[in-house]
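Researcher: I'd like a structural prediction for the single chain below. Treat it as a standalone chain; there are no partners to consider.
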Amino acid sequence: MEVINALGRRKAAVARVYVKEGSGKILINKREVETYFPSSLLQYVVRQPLNKLGVAGQYDVTINLQGGGYKGQSEAARLGIARALVKINPTDKPALRSEGFLTRDPREVERKKPGRPKARKRFQFSKR
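Model: Treating it as a single chain, here is the predicted structure.
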């Protein structure tokens, strides 16, 4: 089987995901998922699409992650894995769609406006 690739994004994080048949290893930036994401919750988020379809031991996943924080990176990886699994088997799409794994979360950081300390926060108003 050839390598299937997909792209996942979340906030400022970009995940390039490569999936091929194998034993179930997940490598992120050439490191094991357990060392890259020490938090078991973030490891769970990355593995969600594989566990949902019950194919966790069938594919080797290699991910290149850039930008963002660890939460955004884990969710970008989840989206990329889900998209790659749909490319492999299109009949899995409804199952992944119902869990929300194929939805790109569009929320981004709002830009800072001039004359304000942050995007929406205002300086303290003084009447006199």
